[in-house]
Amino acid sequence: MERSIGHLRARFKYRSDPFKTVHKLAAALLGDAAVGKTSLVRRFMLDQFSDGYLATVGAKPMKKNLEVQAQAGPENVQLLIWDVVGQRGYHGVQDRVLKGIQGVVLGYDVTRDATRESLRTYWIPRMKEADLHVPVVIVGNKLDLSSDRWAALEELKSFARQAGLSGGGFLTSAKTGERVEDAFVLLAGEILGGAVPPSLVAHDGRTTMEVDPMVSVVDRVITDFCDEFGGPERAMVHVQREAARAGLDINAPDWQAVRHFIENLNDIDRGLRAAKATDTQARRLQWLWEAANGSPV
Question: 0.85 exceeded by the pTM?
Answer without folding.
Answer: yes
